[in-house]
Amino acid sequence: MNLNVTDKIEITPSTPFAFDPTFHKPDHFTSGDNLWEPGIRWQTLNWQGMPVGIKFTSEGTIDEPKISMMVFSEAQLPHDFVDSLISEIRYRYNLDLDLSDFYKRSQKDAMLAPVIEKLRGMRPGHPSSLYEYLIIGVVLQNASVRRSIQMFQVLLENYGTLLEFDGKELWCFWNPGGLQNVSEEELRALKIGYRAKFIKKIDDYFSKGLIDEQTLRNQDRETQMRELLKLYGVGPATVWYLLFDVFHHWDFFNHISPWEQKIYSKLFFDRDPENPVPVEKLLKHFERYGKYKQLAVHYIWEDLFWKRETEHIPWLEEEIRI
DNA sequence: CATCAGGGCCCTG
DNA sequence: CAGGGCCCTGAT
Known about the structure:
Layout lengths: L4 E7 L7 H5 L10 E4 L2 E8 L2 E9 L8 E7 L5 H14 L7 H7 L5 H8 L10 H11 L4 H15 L1 E5 L2 E5 L11 H5 L6 H13 L5 H5 L3 H9 L6 H10 L12 H12 L9 H8 L6 H18 L3 H7 L2
Antiparallel strand pairs: 1-5, 2-3, 3-4, 4-5, 6-7
Helix pairs in contact: 4-14, 5-6, 5-8
This protein binds a DNA duplex through α6, α8, α11 and α12.
């Protein structure tokens, strides 16, 4: 699909704002739906069933930020569509987040303070909708990075839409409920294994309108967690990711998967990944970050993966096994 | 070659 | 509440 109609919008985030670490998370292993280079991010977005291409360009500084957002579409977009798209972007990337209290509380933390200095203005956030994140969450389960990317890619190429805009070709997600005519067997043929059943059931759930992302956003964390765990194929690991990335709870930390446990053990206790610190002890350690514990660990985690972009970290390569 | 453990989750006993 | 089964893939 060729997207030749453009609409240019200027977005002013709250201050301070760091473009690159907000729009590019090196630990989110990309697979054909976005591209990044310093100061520019291209991505696709399925908004209200309409596939659009977006090019974000940094046009400001950390203390006087300005983002140019170019929207590419097939036909002219109605004003209210564009308005709702902008507010959704502001939500997903936390462009209005006030980080001052978090920064103030972290000043005296020997580990966090230098990381914040480097990443000052970085927002947490994730580009995906709830439905999309659920699909991603399922392909992350019980698989290495390489295999997760491969599964996600094959799903996009079979059920997504290839968009051409600004000289790029990127895949756009299908609609929630868009797999109604796809059988579990067909999904299995794409080598996603037992996850085929999970994806079918999640898609059915959305197709029947049993869950609404906007409604869920306005409910409390316990309700969100309860509703999400009702989904077949969603357990503690996936819910934990969702509460942070999609529902923006900075204070919730109740789960550490084995590979993350090894990385935290090395980062926070300089312990050999072969001999990791118990999960309970790690969780207790994170308590020092209070109501920003997950945000704090996000900063430290992103710092590690940004380092990986420029320097070789052997022990980390060993753990992520791309 | 064969075996095995993954960036979990569901189901059973 | 512990443990088996599920899928494919790359490592050993």
